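Problem 12. The chain below contains 313 residues. Write out its predicted structure in token notation.
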Amino acid sequence: MAKLSFFIAAHNGAEYPGLIKHRLGKDISYSVATTIEDGVAQYDGQPVLLARPDFAAAILNCKPPIKWIQSTWAGVAPLINHPARDYVLTGVKDVFGAQMTEYVIGHILHHELRIGEREQQQLQKLWKARGSGRLEGKTMGVLGTGSIAIDLANTVSRLGVKVIGYNSSGKHVEPFEQIFTRNSLTQFLQQSDYLIGILPDLPGTTNLLDASAFNSMKESALLINVGRGNLIDDDALCAALASNQIAGAILDVFKQEPLPEQSPLWTAKNLKITPHIAAMSYPKDITEVFLRNLERYLNDEELLYQIDFTKGY
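Solution.
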């Protein structure tokens, strides 16, 4: 391998050297920072960053000679929103699909099997033999048709769930049975028993789920958002839940994180909150993506999973 120095900037950055160093040539060196402040202070002109997007954005403020940034996150909004774009940005794919699929199916099963309700019955020593809901025969509407959405669709379709998708282009994507766009959003929402948000943070996705959207949904619908928090009009969601326009919601992502204590989402009816944990960036997974791209970078080959700054993904 050619001589190269790269910079690791992530809160769990200290975990990467043990996974990477035995697979690097002797002419490759690296430095590590585990806070944004240390990242800015310790960055020393390396052309390659393996970094969280928010850490990398802070380093870019110094106008460094960066040629390539490998994101450790699926979402890259801090870098898309940064004016500097004279480098190659690569994302992460084929890593988070299984985690998000397990999260989504787990919460759907919790909902359909009435697990929370049955726990309360046990505490009250009540014997109520009320039947459970079923996944089979239901329709899942997935907002987004990228690699994570495809993993989810492939899995739930094997459980007898019909899967339809929403994207900006209207282009058909397997295994979705039908694709909808902004012009057909109402029809998409009307069909969805489970509505899953896996869209990037873009102007066109902000508040896509507003009061009008919730009014179009089934009263029995369950909303799960694991994509980006900008998707949902929070006030409209709280109102929809309070008036039983939809059956419930599970949110893992928010417009502001951590979610402020004063947010009405904390106490909204039939709403469950998790702290952005549906898919975690584990170094062992990110390392494999980075090393594949590092080999391509050193051989002057096109990098995998390049982000289009104009599209935002």
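Discussion. Residues 97-112 form the longest helix (16 residues). Students who got a different answer should revisit the alignment rule from Section 12.3.
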